[in-house]
Amino acid sequence: MKILVSNDDGYRAEGIRRLREALATLAEVTVVAPDRNKSGASNSLTLDVPLRVFESEPGVYFVPGTPTDCVHLAISGLFDFEYDMVVSGVNDGPNLGDDVLYSGTVAAAVEGRFLGLPTIAVSLCTVGADGGHFETGAQVARVLVAQLQKEPLQPLVLNVNVPDVPYEALRGFRASRLGYRHRSEPAVRAQDPRGRPVYWIGPAGAQKDEGPGTDFDTVAEGYVSVTPLQVDLTRHAALPALASWLDAIDG
Hints:
By secondary structure, the chain is an alpha/beta fold. The chain has six helices and 13 strands. The relative contact order is 0.14.
């Protein structure tokens, strides 16, 4: 079995190193990841300049590009072999609710799914300076990959959020739906050294839909949240009403 590992925190991040070590006990692992932090890159592809690929050590490659660039290149021509699965992570921070729309970690997994592979995106819900149980996230990924080897699912994206605790403290695994947040905090205005205004994107909003069954609630209860994501964004239930609305247009 051949697994492609990527992330959005960069190829030197602790999470991806732990993930590679854990999955290497199950499969042949290749890392292709951005050269630096690309959090929030979502599903962007670099189309205006050519991409270069560098090898930092055997089996570990980095790209001055986005997580989607990395997965696309790795599957679509960088190597002369085929992958069986893509695993992205372990992200430093949660990807809960509508975080998935911006996440480079999830985007790397989505790109793998676009290209026909089963994929997993793993995020560690790090909390404060005392957090950072990346070995827990890596072990969770290993357990899920082993389960997929034993009992494959139809190709999909599994979005996994792991409480930031030792593995032995996890209460188990739960299938969860995405919750959602309040609108993000306002942009933060500052000044550059010449007195010109600059802006920082504001923090993500607090949880709004965090009730039972959501990924927010699952993690808060100490369980690993596993959410199946689909690539089709069509709101199928709204199609009949939209068709009627369009029929009412004069012309």
